[in-house]
TrEMBL record:
Family affiliation: Belongs to the small heat shock protein (HSP20) family.
Source species of the chain: Solitalea agri
Domain SHSP intervals: 33-146
One of the Pfam families matching this protein, by short name: HSP20
Listed name of the protein: Hsp20/alpha crystallin family protein
UniProt-listed PANTHER family: HEAT-SHOCK PROTEIN 20 FAMILY MEMBER
Length: 146
């Protein structure tokens, strides 16, 4: 068996049939391509007092998420079901969409696991992971030389 690296600009990727079905004639039909893009992008930032995660999930609602912390592991999951139906000119189209994802992150030891907070706003889930007092950066101290 020979493995060939995928190249989206290659003419052998499916030809005119794929181009036809991916055109604007069928804007709501993904032809099985959503499985590769279901996992939302995540930004992780470290601040002096906490860590922040931003999960980009614009099509989800607050109720579609589950965030949990257990044994030093932060798990963020989402699930969305949608149904649409179109009736016009004697044609009927009915589509179902089921999307889910699950991401887990190992937490640093300095995170206060009991104080993790999550807020969903404008399509982004913000998760704040406060650091313990020992881990917070302290102001530099000048040491007198004797």
């Amino acid at each position: 068996m020979t493995l060939v690296k995928y190249n989206p600009s290659s003419p052998s990727r499916g030809g005119w049939m794929d181009d036809f079905f991916s055109s604007s004639l069928f804007p709501n039909f993904d032809w099985g391509r959503t499985s590769a893009t279901n996992t939302p992008a995540v930004n992780i930032r470290e601040n002096p007092d906490n860590y922040e995660l931003e999960v980009a999930a614009p099509r989800l609602n607050k109720k579609d998420f589950e965030v949990s912390v257990e044994n030093g592991l932060l798990t963020i999951s989402g699930h969305k079901e949608t149904q649409s139906e179109e009736n016009n000119n004697h044609f009927t189209r009915r589509e179902f969409s089921y999307n889910s994802f699950k991401r887990s992150f190992s937490l640093p030891e300095d995170v206060k696991q009991d104080e993790v907070v999550a807020v969903y706003q404008n399509g982004i889930l913000h998760v704040t992971l406060p650091k313990s007092e020992q881990a917070k950066a302290k102001a530099p101290r000048t040491i007198k030389i004797s």
